[in-house]
Amino acid sequence: MTRLTPTRAWAATILFAAFAILPMITQALGDSYLIVIATRILAYAIAALALDLILGYGGMVSFGHAAYLGIGAYAVAILGRAGITDLGAHMLAAIAVAAVFALITGAISLRTRGIYFIMITLAFAQMGYFFFVSLSAYGGDDGVTLNARSTVFGQPLLENNTALYYTALALLIGLYLLAVAITRSRFGRVLTGARENPLRMQAIGFSPFRYQLTAYVISGCMASIAGVMLANQASYVSPSYMDWHRSGELVVMVVFGGIGNLLGAVAGATIALLLEEWLALLTRHWPILFGLILVLVVLYSRDGLSGFFRSDRS
Known about the structure:
Distance between the termini: 18 Å
Mean pLDDT: 90
Low-confidence stretches: none
Structural class: mainly alpha
Radius of gyration: 19 Å
Order of helices and strands: HHHHHEHHHHEHHHH
């Protein structure tokens, strides 16, 4: 379970402080493209954080979490086309639709366990994917380019890449603190207990299903916010955000950073995407190298990258 120990608190402070000063570094280097990459990393870090909340603490291996990225992204596109450009409205719409979708699909999916849960979450995500492919008004499979980014109180503040970056960073920090608070609460302890032994939790008076479903809905809502930020970062939305490959990438990020470690999920998303950018410069066959690195990390640390920094590693 995540505890905000002094060591972990310092690690979180250092990581987020590094993110905070990054725009100053990019300005000094004169490379504005780094801000674009970093904003994408922050958005995926939010999505990985959301997935780790149910994967690491609830034992729910969702292979369809990319559906919530797509819901968030299309909330921006659809409302923007209707003349509603406010970022707050986009996030509220994304959260509302994601909550309903997660509530319905989660209530069905949580009736299953193991590989069946994985496959049914994948199936629901693919249903969402093909639904948006069929929306010819929004480009179908080709997607749609946004006319403009979301506005803040009617002002186009997010047209500035640095402003968009700091907005994504603020959302990541806020959602990280929320996730830490959830996992440290009685709710989080019951969720972890349901992962370890659902029958015992039921015997002492708790309903694992209700806690797991609530966590699933919260996680979906958090991931939808990542979709809102991705849409603004790319100024483009397509059904590919919901593809099962994207869900697989999120699982890899969580495993890479360390399952059940919220800060590890953020770090895993960061390092995975940085490796992707760097290895792609070396060879077009970069997935092979990335896969090799992932295998080595998993073989030598049961807690992903975060395991290498544990003082009690065996």
